[in-house]
Structures are given as C-alpha cells and as structure tokens.
C-alpha cells in the first residue's frame, strides 16, 4: 500500500531534495544571472554589433561556472548516498554522479573550443547552454516516465535553438529538420509511455508495480509499448530510424555546438536507457540488436561516400551510437562497464575530432567545413596537427595504440559473453558480433581517408595560416587521454568498477 505524505512531510521532502541537487540549483541561479547580464549588455551596446569583449567575458564566466559545477558534482561522490528525490521523480547514485561529471566536462570543452577559436555567439547562447546542461544532468537522475519525457523535451527544444543560433538560412534548415524528427519521435515516445502507464498503473520505472504490471499483460503488447517508448532515446542517440536529421543538423550548426551535440545528449540518454532496460522484464535483445546493426551499417556505409569532413564525422557519430546500443544487449556487469568505458573514450575522441577538423578549416581559410581533397599535403606542412588528427581517427576506428581499441574490444567481449550465456536469441547476438566486426573493418576506409590526404598526397595550394599555441595545447590535451587510456586502461576500469 502506497504511503501518502501530508503537506508538511511533502514540503520537508522537497526541501531535503533541493539540498542534494545543489549543482543543478547553482546552474539554475547562474542561468538567471546570465539572462539579466545579457539584457544589461544588450541595452548598453549597439543592437547591430555584438561586443567581442562581452562575448569573451561570457565565455570565461561560463567556463568558471562549469568548473565550479564539476567540483560540486565530484564532491557528491563522497557526500551523497543512493537516494530518491522529489517523491521518486529522480534517483541519485554513483552512476548518475559520474555521468553528470561527464556532462559538465563536455560543457567545459565546448566553451574552451569557443574561447580559443574565437567564436562569436549572441550572449543569450550562454544562458541556453547552461539550461541544456541542467536538463542533461537532471536526465541522468530521471527514473519517472513523466520526468524522463520532460527533460528529453527540454534538451530537444534547447538543441533546436542552438542549431539555429547563427540565424542564417543553413542553420534554419538544419533546425527545422531537427524539429520535425524530434516532434515525431516525441509523439511516439509519449504514446508508448501512456500505454505503459495504462498497463502498470505507475510512471515510476523503479517501482515493483512497473515490472510486475508488464508481466501480467500480453508480451507482444508490452513489447510494442516499450519499443515506442525507446523512440525518444533513439532520437537523442541518432540511432536508426531516427538518425536522418543528424548530418544536416551537424552541417548547419557551428563546430563547438556540434561537438557538444555528438557527446553530451548521448551520455545522459544512455544512462536513462540503461535504467529503463533494467526495469523492463521483456527480452529486447532482438529489437535492440536489429536497431544497433542497422545503425552501425547505415552510419559506416554512408560515411564511405562523404567528401566533406564534417558530414563524415556526422555519419561516424551515427555508427558509434550503434556500438553504444550493443552495451544494452546483455545488461551484465561487463557490458555496463564496457558501455561506460566506451562513453568516456568517445567523449575525448569526438571532441578532439571536431576540434581538429575546425583547426583544419581555420588553416584552410574555409568556414565551418571543407572538402577532404583540400587538405592534400597539409600533414607535411603541419606535422603536429596531422599527427594529432591521426591519433584521434585511429581511436575512433578502434585501433591500437589508442583507447578506442579497448573501448571496442570491451564492447565485443561483453557481446561474446552474452552470446555464450544466452539461452534464447543467440542468433541475433552472433549476427551482431560478426557484422559489428565487419563494420569496424569498413570504417577504416573512411577514417584513414583524411590521414591519407594529409600525408600521402602532394599539396596543390599554399598554406599560409598559422595556429596559436593555445590551439595546439587544447588539441593535445584532448588527444592525450586517447593514448593514456590505452596504456593505463586499468585506471579508468577501476574507477568505473566503483559505480
């Protein structure tokens, strides 16, 4: 029987919950301050010209704010025990804290990218970015279907705005495509959640009534409802069949925002999906396996034909979403550890890839993107930039001596373990294992295309642009973990074991 709290108890519970979500409350306060500061700066400056000084100040302030937020999140490891918040709307544990730290780190890297490469955004961008990080951190703690829906919608709406932040035609087109697919997946997800509520009588996925209710309904009906619900997760992951928006949106949005899109929403979504899969009694291996296989295949084969670097990386992110879905196949201790290891490696590799491609665009004097043939011989002209990009792309391909090798090795090891211990659906596990390895080999052709043009083609044009020391420092800092986690992978695995 459910205990109904009186008003006083409810208020006390809300107040105690607010004390635990200090990092998010801090960011909410900063969001308000940034809105007020934007109004003040806009009033004092020209309406036609964005002040470069004020933009730089907003960026530096944002970096400091997120560093404070990261410290607050890390501090929760030693001060917070597993607990429910706001009448079981949220749940905070070591996994949620770790994933929140990854999201804070993603925000810091995005702002560093903006600051060092001197991007100019409207001042309201920084308030929107802070709001998105709040939503993503709340998503990592969401264990209630209503809360999950609200935070996914909040992230989606803010993503649409960030895509069109430059207010140009290309950005508007990318934002509209993003909006259309987002609205479609949202409607399907909401309908699936309503079916689950009708079947179980609860919206809390941690409630025993949730899994018990699903077992008392026809399995086909519950599977349909569950699959409709995960449509929202697939959209945020850029997974098939909700992946079509990805290349156009990535092409339209500025490079730092694209790098953030490619990592942070996926980090938050994977933890929500992991909790949801553990709460559902249905065997979803066949459905998930088919989706993962289709996502990896579509991403890799589409990337083969790309001539533009940014679109190539966009299709690469789709393929990596498929590998992340493999981590949901077994739900064993090894698969969960492998999934988290993959996410950490993916964070540094993707930020490094987009940042280095941005540096290449600056070097070439192009805006936002370039044809791959334009970089012929650039690696000989600038070996440091070429070597850093080679390390990053080798890691994305999953080759030694980079962390990407162990990331994919662990994922395939977990998949093989699931195949050996499975009593049913063994065929899809074996098929995914074989075709996953095949797709990994296919990916070498497009990942190594860029280094091939960098080092083995003769330059057809002169490269006169020079890069700053800080640009090289950030690029090196992003690539360093890709080598470090190969030689000392046990450090990261030991940390993950504590979650």
Automatic annotation (TrEMBL):
<feature type="transmembrane region" description="Helical">
    <location>
        <begin position="53"/>
        <end position="74"/>
    </location>
</feature>
<feature type="transmembrane region" description="Helical">
    <location>
        <begin position="343"/>
        <end position="364"/>
    </location>
</feature>
<keyword id="KW-0874">Quinone</keyword>
<feature type="transmembrane region" description="Helical">
    <location>
        <begin position="178"/>
        <end position="200"/>
    </location>
</feature>
<dbReference type="InterPro" id="IPR001750">
    <property type="entry name" value="ND/Mrp_TM"/>
</dbReference>
<comment type="function">
    <text>NDH-1 shuttles electrons from NADH, via FMN and iron-sulfur (Fe-S) centers, to quinones in the respiratory chain. The immediate electron acceptor for the enzyme in this species is believed to be a menaquinone. Couples the redox reaction to proton translocation (for every two electrons transferred, four hydrogen ions are translocated across the cytoplasmic membrane), and thus conserves the redox energy in a proton gradient.</text>
</comment>
<feature type="transmembrane region" description="Helical">
    <location>
        <begin position="220"/>
        <end position="245"/>
    </location>
</feature>
<comment type="subunit">
    <text>NDH-1 is composed of 14 different subunits. Subunits NuoA, H, J, K, L, M, N constitute the membrane sector of the complex.</text>
</comment>
<feature type="transmembrane region" description="Helical">
    <location>
        <begin position="469"/>
        <end position="487"/>
    </location>
</feature>
<dbReference type="InterPro" id="IPR010096">
    <property type="entry name" value="NADH-Q_OxRdtase_suN/2"/>
</dbReference>
<keyword id="KW-1003">Cell membrane</keyword>
<feature type="domain" description="NADH:quinone oxidoreductase/Mrp antiporter transmembrane">
    <location>
        <begin position="143"/>
        <end position="420"/>
    </location>
</feature>
<feature type="transmembrane region" description="Helical">
    <location>
        <begin position="146"/>
        <end position="166"/>
    </location>
</feature>
<comment type="similarity">
    <text>Belongs to the complex I subunit 2 family.</text>
</comment>
<feature type="transmembrane region" description="Helical">
    <location>
        <begin position="94"/>
        <end position="112"/>
    </location>
</feature>
<feature type="transmembrane region" description="Helical">
    <location>
        <begin position="385"/>
        <end position="407"/>
    </location>
</feature>
<feature type="transmembrane region" description="Helical">
    <location>
        <begin position="20"/>
        <end position="41"/>
    </location>
</feature>
<keyword id="KW-0520">NAD</keyword>
<feature type="transmembrane region" description="Helical">
    <location>
        <begin position="312"/>
        <end position="331"/>
    </location>
</feature>
<keyword id="KW-0472">Membrane</keyword>
<feature type="transmembrane region" description="Helical">
    <location>
        <begin position="124"/>
        <end position="140"/>
    </location>
</feature>
<feature type="transmembrane region" description="Helical">
    <location>
        <begin position="427"/>
        <end position="448"/>
    </location>
</feature>
<keyword id="KW-0812">Transmembrane</keyword>
<feature type="transmembrane region" description="Helical">
    <location>
        <begin position="284"/>
        <end position="305"/>
    </location>
</feature>
<feature type="transmembrane region" description="Helical">
    <location>
        <begin position="257"/>
        <end position="278"/>
    </location>
</feature>
<protein>
    <recommendedName>
        <fullName>NADH-quinone oxidoreductase subunit N</fullName>
        <ecNumber>7.1.1.-</ecNumber>
    </recommendedName>
</protein>
<keyword id="KW-1133">Transmembrane helix</keyword>
<keyword id="KW-1278">Translocase</keyword>
<dbReference type="Pfam" id="PF00361">
    <property type="entry name" value="Proton_antipo_M"/>
</dbReference>
<keyword id="KW-0813">Transport</keyword>
């Amino acid at each position: 029987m459910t205990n109904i709290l009186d008003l006083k108890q409810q208020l006390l519970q809300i107040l105690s919950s607010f004390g635990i979500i200090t990092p998010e409350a801090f960011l909410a306060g900063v969001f308000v301050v940034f809105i007020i500061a934007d109004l003040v700066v806009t009033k004092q400056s020209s309406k036609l010209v964005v002040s470069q000084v004020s933009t730089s100040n907003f960026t530096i302030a944002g970096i400091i704010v997120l560093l404070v937020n990261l410290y607050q999140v890390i501090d929760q490891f030693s001060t917070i025990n597993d607990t429910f918040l706001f009448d079981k709307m949220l749940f905070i544990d070591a996994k949620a804290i770790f994933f929140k730290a990854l999201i804070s780190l993603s925000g810091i890297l995005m702002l560093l990218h903006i600051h060092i490469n001197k991007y100019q955004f409207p001042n309201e961008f920084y308030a929107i970015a802070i709001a998105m990080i709040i939503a993503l951190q709340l998503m990592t703690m969401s264990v209630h279907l209503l809360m999950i829906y609200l935070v996914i919608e909040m992230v989606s709406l803010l993503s649409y705005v960030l895509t069109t932040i430059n207010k140009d035609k290309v950005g508007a087109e990318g934002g509209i495509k993003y909006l259309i697919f987002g609205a479609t997946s949202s409607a399907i997800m909401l309908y699936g959640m309503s079916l689950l509520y009708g079947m179980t009588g609860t919206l809390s996925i941690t409630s025993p009534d949730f899994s018990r209710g699903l077992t008392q309904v026809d399995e086909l009906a519950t599977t349909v409802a569950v699959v409709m619900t995960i449509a929202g997760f697939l959209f945020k992951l850029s997974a098939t069949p909700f992946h079509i928006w990805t290349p156009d949106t990535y092409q339209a949005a500025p490079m730092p925002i694209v790098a953030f899109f490619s990592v942070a929403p996926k980090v938050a979504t994977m933890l929500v999906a992991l909790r949801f899969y553990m709460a559902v009694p249905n065997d979803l291996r066949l459905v998930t396996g088919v989706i993962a296989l289709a996502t990896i295949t579509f991403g890799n084969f589409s990337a083969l034909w790309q001539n533009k670097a940014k679109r190539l990386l966009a299709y690469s992110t789709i393929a990596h979403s498929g590998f992340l879905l493999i981590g949901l196949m077994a739900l064993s201790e090894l698969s969960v550890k492998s999934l988290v290891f993959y996410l950490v490696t993916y964070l540094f590799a993707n930020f490094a890839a987009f940042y280095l491609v941005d540096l290449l665009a600056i070097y070439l004097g192009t805006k936002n993107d370039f044809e791959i043939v334009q970089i012929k011989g650039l690696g000989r002209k600038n070996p440091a930039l070429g070597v850093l990009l080679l390390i990053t792309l080798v890691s994305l391909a999953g080759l030694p001596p980079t962390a990407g090798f162990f990331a994919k090795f662990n994922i395939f090891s977990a998949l093989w373990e699931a195949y050996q211990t499975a009593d049913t659906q063994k065929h899809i596990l074996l098929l995914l294992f074989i075709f996953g390895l095949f797709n990994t080999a296919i990916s070498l052709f497009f990942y190594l295309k860029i280094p091939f043009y960098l080092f083995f083609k003769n330059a057809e044009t002169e490269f006169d642009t020079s890069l700053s020391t800080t640009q090289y420092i950030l690029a090196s800092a992003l690539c360093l973990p890709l080598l470090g986690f190969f030689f000392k992978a046990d450090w990261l695995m030991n940390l993950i074991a504590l979650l």
